[in-house]
Design brief:
CATH topology of the largest domain: Outer membrane lipoprotein wza fold like
Strand content: 25-35%
Helix content: 10-25%
Largest sheet: 5 strands, mixed
Number of helices: 5
Distance between the termini: 67 Å
CATH superfamily of the largest domain: Outer membrane lipoprotein wza domain like
Number of domains: 3
Radius of gyration: 28 Å
């Protein structure tokens, strides 16, 4: 990230800083590590606590310390984070390279997906994703909340509201896709990933391009494994669509096989 994008980032242990003092180049240092407990060591002013401060706050702090020690008045200081190591987030599930990543300034959901190599095509890109966020970590008030992300909308540019800023300890989880199968008299038989959690048979047939002209839509069957046994449900899709009875539309479950027979009349 550039200098402007670091304004809100709060420095923490194991981060690496470059500090430039314009009036006294000899005081400038590169590659200053922040200790695990949040301190840096800097010429003339020794140890300074910088944990949970932004780069601009550290700039003011160092200038103040130099003035208090009567070393340099009105120092112009620049602080740049060159390595982000103190804050982490994880990307799990249907990412190509799932794992833990350093949280950089202004990292958002799409940045996290990119850092994890993108999404396994046809695995997670049609699913809702979620962020499991830890609030007040390390305190008695610590709790986890779940933020749902409209992943299809975000990836297609429809829902930029879901491209929220990531936070320390976030877990971005992209569920692997569930599938259903459809064969027989539809335009595009085959395997389809669920585009949402609750899907009806009408929506499933629509994803497959709809019925062919010779489909016996009133005799559509769902073949489902329940309790280790195969069960077959016959569904009159015509009654649902033509009768306007969408409320009666049958929900599809993962691994269902939908069979649309040919009409012989």
């Amino acid at each position: 990230p550039d200098v402007r994008s670091q304004m809100d980032y709060k420095v923490g242990g194991y981060d690496i800083l470059n500090i430039l003092v314009y009036e006294e180049k000899d005081l400038s240092r590169e590659g200053i590590p922040v200790s695990a407990d949040g301190f840096i060591t800097f010429p003339l002013i020794d140890r300074v606590r910088v944990a949970d401060l932004t780069p601009s706050e550290i700039e003011k702090l160092i200038a103040t310390k130099l003035a208090e020690g009567q070393f340099l008045n009105n120092a112009h200081v620049s602080v740049i984070v060159t390595k982000y190591e103190s804050r982490k987030y994880s990307v799990l599930g249907a990412a190509k390279n799932p794992g833990q990543f350093s949280l950089q300034a202004h990292d958002r959901v799409l940045d996290g997906i990119s850092r994890a190599g993108g999404i396994e095509v046809a695995e997670g890109e049609k699913q809702e994703a979620m962020i499991i966020r830890t609030q007040n970590p390390g305190t008695p008030q610590e709790r986890k909340i779940v933020v749902t992300i409209d992943l299809p909308g975000l990836l297609k540019g429809r829902d930029q509201i879901s491209n929220i800023l990531l936070a320390d300890l976030d877990v971005l989880y992209i569920p692997k896709a569930d599938y259903f199968y459809i064969m027989g008299e539809v335009q595009k038989p085959g395997q389809y990933a669920f585009s949402k959690k609750d899907m009806t048979i009408v929506e499933a047939i629509s994803m497959a391009g709809g019925f062919t002209p010779i489909a016996a839509s009133g005799k559509t069957r769902i073949v489902r494994i329940e309790g280790g046994a195969e069960k077959i449900y016959q569904v009159n899709v015509d009654a649902i669509t033509k009768g306007g009875k969408m409320i009666q539309s049958v929900p599809i479950k993962p691994n269902d096989l939908i069979v649309v027979p040919e009409s012989f009349f």
